[in-house]
Design a protein that fits this description.
There is one protein chain. The protein folds into 2 domains: 233 residues, Periplasmic binding protein-like II (D-Maltodextrin-Binding Protein, domain 2); 78 residues, D-Maltodextrin-Binding Protein, domain 2 (3-Layer(aba) Sandwich), CATH 3.40.190. It has 12 helices and 16 strands. β1, α4 and β2 form a beta-alpha-beta unit. The longest helix has 11 residues. It is globular. The two termini are 20 Å apart.
């Protein structure tokens, strides 16, 4: 299977600060319209040589770690990017998945990065920033259809406790407020782990919010479909490797900017010139004091990033290059 056939197979954006000082528009963070459209096999073949397919540098068969257990949205994103002809290894945490990449035990990891409703997954961003010697080499945007499920025979009126990942709970908060306002909400390590615990717990009063496929996988009954109640609910995932993409022409690049908040507008104005535009920026405290951050900034470039443009960006004070890539959307 070649790359073409494989392919077919604290949301704080500092909006007020940036809007007042930047000379270019601040785009939404990959909410569908900001993302590169999915590339079909036919369009990949027709694309110019300067625009690599998102999976152009991925081996036909490779090893991939992802946030498990089986049945998570991360597994779904992993299969969308890599196909089924790979060695997929579910892990208990994102940090575990990244550690396997860093020590060379697996070639890639797939990690959640941001949700359209719940915002950035800051714990996972922090885990990425804490992992040395890795690069972002791909991105997946996946529609999310959160589903409420429980043991066979359970009834919605019986539910007193709801398990899910914190993002699943956040994305479904409005529905829960309206229909299960008194139910206790309990965070789990993943949506699939929530479904698995409900299946193994034997309690008809406990439900899980998880991917639709988790109901069949763990033998649960669907009580309500699409409890996130939004067609805009999408999550994007990073594909991470020790080996950075080498081909020129990918249309996305990500940098970590180490700076104070007051310095950010000038730095982004310096970065975003010509065809290079800001896609989004997230801030994470760097631990040295208030107002000092690691900013994760994603940039796009019409026609794809050239070596010269990446060199220019990398020379800006505080800019640390984290990888170039293109996106697949499910």
């Amino acid at each position: 299977m070649n790359a073409t056939s494989r392919h077919s197979g604290s949301r704080r954006l500092l909006a007020g600060l940036l809007a007042a000082t930047l000379t270019f528009p601040l785009a939404a963070c990959a909410q569908g319209e900001a993302a590169a459209p999915a590339t079909t096999a036919a369009s990949t073949q027709a694309a110019p040589a300067s625009q690599p397919a998102p999976t152009a540098e991925i081996a036909d068969v490779t090893s991939v770690a992802y946030l498990g257990p089986t049945g998570t949205y991360t597994e779904e994103a992993t299969k969308l990017f890599f196909g089924n002809n790979d060695q997929l290894q579910p892990q208990k945490t994102v940090a575990d998945a990244l550690a396997l990449v860093a020590d060379g035990s697996v070639a890639y990891a797939v990690i959640p990065q941001e949700n359209a409703l719940g915002g950035p997954t800051v714990d996972y961003i922090d885990a990425l920033l804490a992992t040395q010697g890795v690069s972002v080499v791909g991105e997946v945007i996946l529609p999310i259809r959160q589903t409420l499920m429980a043991l066979p025979g359970a009834d919605l009126s019986q539910i007193t406790t709801v398990y899910s990942h914190k993002q699943g709970l956040a994305q479904s908060a409005k529905w829960l407020d309206e229909h299960l306002a008194s139910a206790k909400r309990v965070e789990k390590s993943s949506t699939a782990a929530a479904a698995q615990e409900v299946a193994e717990g034997g309690d008809l009063t406990v439900a899980a919010i998880a991917a639709p496929g988790a109901a069949e996988l763990y033998g649960l009954q669907v009580l309500q479909e699409n409890v996130s109640q939004s067609e805009a609910n999408k999550t994007r995932f990073y594909v991470v490797s020790r080996e950075a993409n080498k081909l020129a022409g990918y249309d996305r690049a990500v940098f970590v900017i180490n700076a104070k908040a007051e310095e950010l507008p000038a730095l982004l104005n310096q970065a975003c010139t010509g065809d290079t535009k800001l896609v989004c920026v997230h801030d994470r405290p760097d631990g040295t004091g208030l107002g000092s951050y690691h900013f994760v900034a994603e940039l796009s470039m019409a026609g794809g990033f050239t070596e010269a443009e990446l060199a220019r960006l990398s020379a800006i004070p505080g800019f640390q290059y984290l990888g170039r890539y293109s996106c697949i959307e499910g």
